[in-house]
Amino acid sequence: MDGLGRFAGHWQVERDIRDHRAGIVGRFEGQAVFAPDGAGLVYDENGLLRLGDGPALRATRRYLWREGARGIEVLFADGRRFHEIGPEGTAAHLCAADLYRVAYDFARWPAWEALWRVSGPAKDYEMRTRYRPAR
Q: Hey, which bits of 52-123 come out as E strands?
């Protein structure tokens, strides 16, 4: 994986969520856009999220992606550090007492995925997100 430029553009996104604590399975389907902002890329995601048998809800998220010293720095929309994607494709983020661990897989580029495992006193879930270029 070399540089942010490879990510620029539109992507189809599919995310499977398995909440072990609540016993709920969820699914997100939507789009993501990586757009240049002068300092790197802005990641905007928009789609429909369904948790269990509940209704589909509109879901959005925004992150900032920046070139870092050891890889790609992923920041929250307000500029706070989230995690850094290093050469091995793994990262971690501690949020209060809950640990977020991610493994990125770029082996089938331009299709790629991120597997999150979140554990702690408040959370116990996995999310697998698959990305492919939008058509």
A: 57-67, 72-76, 81-85, 90-95, 98-105, 112-119
Q: What is the CATH number of domain 4-133?
A: 2.40.128.20
In this structure, are residues 65 and 76 in contact, taking their beta carbons and an 8 Å threshold? no
Domain definitions of the chain by residue range: 4-133
Tokens representing 17? 């969520």
**Mean pLDDT computed over every residue of the chain:** 95
- Contact in structure between 82 and 93 (CB atoms under 8 Å): yes
Residue matched to tokens 């599919």: 14
Burial 42-60 (b: 16+ CB within 10 A, else e): bbebebebbbeeeeeeeee
Q: How many angstroms separate the CA atoms of 123 and 129, rounded?
A: 18
- The model carries a pTM of 0.93
